[in-house]
Amino acid sequence: MSHVVSPIREKLVTGGKSYSDVTHDICKQVEGEPTKEWKIAFGISCLVFIYGAYCLFYTWWQGIGVWGLNKTVGWAWDITNFVWWVGIGHAGTLISAVLLLFRQKWRTSINRSAEAMTIFAVLCAASFILAHMGRPWLAHWALPLPNAFGSLWVNFNSPLVWDVFAISTYLSVSLLFWYMGLVPDLATIRDRATTAGRKFWYGLFSLGWTGSSKTWARYEYMSLILAGISTPLVLSVHTIVSMDFATSVIPGWHTTIFPPYFVAGAIFSGFAMVQTLLLITRVVFKLEDYITIEHIEMMNIVITVTGSVVGIAYLTEFFIAWYSGVEYESYAFINRATGPYWWAYWMMMTCNVISPQLFWSKAIRTNLMVSFFLSIVVNVGMWFERFVIIVTSLHRDYLPSSWAMFSPTRYDIGDYIFSFGLFFTLFFLFAKFLPVVNMAEVKAVMKGVSTEFTIKRIKPTKKTEE
Amino acid sequence: MSSTTNYILGVYDDEDEVLHAVGKVKAKGIKVEDVYSPFPIHGLDVAVGHERTRLPIAAFMFGTLGMICAFSLISYTMVFDWPMIIGGKDFFALPNWIPIAFEGTVLFTAFGLVSTFCISNDLWPGNKTLPLDIRTTDDKFVMAINVDKNKVSAADIKKALKESGAIEVNVK
Question: I need a labelling partner for B127 at 20 to 30 A (CA). Which of A206, B50, B82, B84 fits?
Answer without folding.
Answer: B50
